Amino acid sequence: MNEKLQKIAQMLKSADDIAVYCHTNPDGDAISCALSLCRALRQLGKTVTPVCDSPVPEKYLFMEGADAFVMPDKKVHEAALAVDCSDLARLGGAGRSFLSARKRAAVDHHKSHDPFAETDYTEADAAACAEIIYLLLDGMRLVDKGTAALLFAGIVADSGCFQYPSTTERTHSIACRLMSYGIDSADIIYRVYRRVTPEVFALKTRVLSKCRFFDGGKIALVSFMSGDFESTRTAPSDTEGIISSAIDIDGVEVAFAVSEVKDKNFKVSVRTKSTADASDIAAAFGGGGHSRAAGCRLNGFYEDVVDKLLKAARDRM
């Protein structure tokens, strides 16, 4: 471990009551980081609580401890660690709880990270925050089979099952080390990356059939409206990964997934290839992320939101 990770390790070792915070609307990487930390630190006799202001998506409930997340409350924890979170706002309703802790640290891998803790450690080149948490827990000699399974799930989730450009030699090396604990890697990959419920399959086919293309096929737009969710009995949390079908199309350089969260409020996912930076596009609207995958929120009428996104993409292509 480097000096900053050692400092975070020392903070965790010296505290008896620790809260681990996920960003709002948590994804597989954030969930795996929080749960692996909780599992590992309990081996040291610590009281560790995973905190998030949003429920865990159904697809990740298979992870050990996924049902233990609590909503933020007024309890003041001795130490707080935020994982996979680019800024304080991304903690949503858990932000105030995080700030109330006596000691605070953050571990992240977003290019757009804005420091918000006493100790912030970021590796923008890491394919998943779970890579960094592995280095932290391995340095503390706290990795076992159960923790390895959780960390492997996070790496699979954020690396696109080792397909995204952020995947490095170290990503594969860490994955190999985790597999050496005897985890069921095939089952984890199926649950995280391949498994689709009938409802989500119906949502995917419905929205992809209406995918819109602009600028000679260089920009693709997938829209998830309230009617789509109602008809398929799904929710905005079920849209994860569907955008990959758009960015994988030959000729598409920028893909947007626009999800209607509530009236005139949209969650936007951005994916790019080589001609534009996804985090730069998202940053134009107060969001952020990685060079090839990012996100933001926009308010307004749907067509106005689309026009703004198209302009941002064109300006950066």
Structure explained in plain terms:
It is a single chain. This protein has twelve helices and eleven strands. It is of the alpha/beta class and 317 residues long. Strands 6-7-8-9-11-10 form a six-stranded mixed beta sheet, with helices on both faces. The chain starts with a helix and ends with a helix. The model has no long low-confidence stretch (mean pLDDT 95).
Descriptive keywords:
6-stranded mixed sheet, 5-stranded parallel sheet, alpha/beta, 317 residues
Give average pLDDT, whole number. 95
Percent of residues in β-strands:
15-25%
Widest β-sheet, arrangement of strands: 6-7-8-9-11-10
* Percentage of residues assigned to helices: 25-40%
Strand count, sense and barrel status of the largest sheet are: 6 strands, mixed
Distance between the termini: 38 Å
Number of strands: 11
Q: Given the helix and strand composition, which structural class is it? A: alpha/beta
Number of helices: 12
Low-confidence stretches: none
Oligomer: single chain
Shape assignment: globular
Q: What's the helix-strand series?
A: HEHEEHEEHHHHHEEHHEEHEEH
Radius of gyration: 19 Å
